[in-house]
Design brief:
Layout: H1 7-17, E1 19-20, E2 26-28, H2 33-38, E3 46-49, H3 51-62, H4 70-73, E4 80-82, E5 93-95, H5 96-105, H6 111-133
Parallel strand pairs: 1-3
Antiparallel strand pairs: 2-3, 4-5
Helix pairs in contact: 1-3, 1-6
Bound molecules: zinc ion (ZN).
Zinc ion binds near residues 85, 87, 102 and 107.
């Protein structure tokens, strides 16, 4: 079991075992013998999934979906990001999760393209966290220096 799964990777992997879907997270068809082989854990019926659905589908298959919560499994979906399309109205920033749904449903981006875009967000977030984690540089003039 992977300790940390990237959202982009989960979208990519989930897209390999489901067909694209607009308008809802999952859709399923009656299970056939072939499906039982495909989903050996026995608890999965999804045959179609949107980009986020594909990610949770994959996380569930690997047993890393936390409390059935997409947000807890992939906290990055809460990150504030700018629109990659021209649809920004009041603000040019919004949460990543709803934006993924928007790209999937409104612009019918292929899930692989969404995964690629999400990967650029993940790289930016990693850089941001590295920056935050850096200790504050100590300024030589900030502290009074004892001179005796
Ligand atoms: Zn848009």
């Amino acid at each position: 079991m992977e300790k940390h799964m990237k959202l982009s990777e989960a979208i990519r992997e989930g897209s390999k075992t489901t067909r694209p879907l607009r308008g809802s997270m999952y859709a399923s068809c009656p299970r056939s013998e072939a499906d039982i082989d495909r989903y050996p854990d026995g608890g999965l019926l999804a045959t179609h999934a949107c980009a986020l659905g594909a990610a949770t589908h994959h996380a569930r298959r690997l047993g890393v979906l936390i409390d059935a919560s997409t947000l807890k499994t992939f906290p990055i979906i809460d990150a504030q990001v700018s629109y990659p399309c021209a649809c920004a109205t009041v603000s040019s920033w919004t949460a990543l999760g709803p934006l993924i749904v928007h790209l999937n449903d409104t612009h019918t981006w292929p899930r692989e393209a969404i995964a690629e875009w999400v990967e650029t967000i993940e790289k930016l977030e990693e850089q941001r966290q590295v920056t935050i984690a850096k200790p504050e540089p100590v300024s030589a003039s900030a502290e009074p220096v004892a001179t005796h």
